[in-house]
Sequence to fold (469 residues):
Amino acid sequence: MPVTTCRSDYIDMLTRWEKCRDFYEGADAVKAKGTTYLPAAGSHEEDSKKYNAYKTRALFFNGTRRTVLGLGGAVFQKSPSVVVPGHMESDITDITLTGVSLDLFALYSTREVLITGRYGIFVDMAERPYWTGYQAEAIISWNAERRDGREVLTRVILSEVREVPDPKDIFAFVEIECFRVLSLIDNVYTQTLWYKTSDGDWAPEADVIPLRRGEPLDFIPFTFMSSDSVSSRIERPPLEDVVDVNMSHYHSMADLEWGRHFVALPTPWVSGLVGKDQEKLAIGSGVAWQLAEGGRAGMLEFTGRGLGALEKADVQKRHMMAALGARLLEDQPNQPETLGAVQIRHAGEHATLRTMTQVIGQGLTAALKWHAWWTGTEDSPLEVEEVSIALNKDFINVKASSEEIKTLLLAWQADAISYETFYEGLQSGEWARPGVTVEEEQDDIDKKLSLIPGSEKEEEEEEEEEEEE
Fold:
């Protein structure tokens, strides 16, 4: 089989990924696909000019993109928590060697998982380790085995596009397609690039065996991330239902705008016109129509309720998108809500978002460990410790009210809750300093109290010093 051979489950999912990506990209991408997303009305099927006018007038409301950006923004309203060794601190400011930081790479990864439910990270070595992200459509084939209870990749084929100078024009560039094959052969990791030859066939360049301290790798440094696992298994796009409603909304808006085009302006009508051979009638202040006895003229205006149903569909389908995950599109309550009420109202869709952030964090952590191992001293990536990245899971940016904090304080003062519970309430209600643990907060409090003359803390410290003497 040629290197371009795609897996059957990849082929089955490709059109669904394309649909989700087109709707994320917006009106230009959706309208460019014509009848794929907007079927022609009966009168347009044999008249391309009418269909193009119908499509051009159609309003495309991009609920899909708003949902992706909104959910991604909810995750990244707080920066990820990153733990890396000192020698990697400068690396994470440019994790790709193209100016993309680790935080920004994590945001791109989250958006891709929201759009297609799939993303890949490849860690390679140049002057130092660097990362490359691959969209779902670019990962055309893969093999995996179970070893010691773990999934081990044995082959991954990646589609790439490279920009090279145009041999016919020194000031221009052309894009060429190639395929990167990552293989685990006899437990040795090997890379091979395939290019199209002049006769149209595909041929490989020489194999490259990446080394670490003079030894080849015994694994492929590539990880998948989906909406609910880091395995190679394909999952359905998490927002596909939102995309389908977005498409239906697009249909309704196309019919509504087409109808408005015909009924927005009154249309003149006439009967009993003298000189019936006139095919066109001019209208205006300098024009008169000559009517026979009993002739009539008037203006035809739309009075029915047909467009009202389409206007109602607009509202209904926006609310359907909201119910399926696009809460940022939904009208918010007019009355102030407590933190608990907001959390209850948003709990459903954020359960899925929490799962995705957990999975993305696992995938990014695996790549971080490979990165640290490649430049570290550990014998195996599994031995790398103190390296991790965790994405924010507190998606609701609502500060607890003063009454809620007062209630927490009274409960603590009455010994009904511990200080740890009280401080956790301050953190979730965004009254505490971000990133400060309860132990660190207590230490700061003790230090400040010890500086107050005559305080119990100062007396306790003096007594401890006397006992030591």
